[in-house]
Amino acid sequence: MFKQNKRLIILISALLIAGFLLTSLASYFISVASLRDHVANNELPLTSDNIYTEIQRDLLKPIFISSVMASDTFLRDWVIRGEQEQTEVTRYLKELKEKYNAFTAFFVSEQSRNYYHADGLLKQVRPNEPRDAWYFRVRELPSDYEINVDFDMANNDAMTVFVNYRVYDYEGKFIGVTGVGLAVDAVKKMITHYQETYDRDILFVDQQGGVRLSSAEISDSENYLKELERDAETGRLLKEIAVADAGSFEYQLSDRTVLLNTRYIKEFGWYLLVVQSEVAGTGELFNTLLINLAACALITLIVLVITNFTISSYQQDIERMATTDKLTGLYNRQALDILFRQLVLNLKRRPTEMSALLFDLDHFKRVNDQYGHLAGDAVLEQIARLTVSRLRETDIICRWGGEEFLVLLKDCDIAIARNMAEELRLSVLNNPTDYQQKQINMTISVGVAGYRPEDTRDQLIARVDKALFKAKRSGRNQVAIDD
Ligand SMILES: Nc1nc2c(ncn2[C@@H]2O[C@H](COP(=O)(O)OP(=O)(O)OP(=O)(O)O)[C@@H](O)[C@H]2O)c(=O)[nH]1
Question: Can you tell me which residues the record assigns to a coiled coil (predicted)?
Answer without folding.
Answer: none
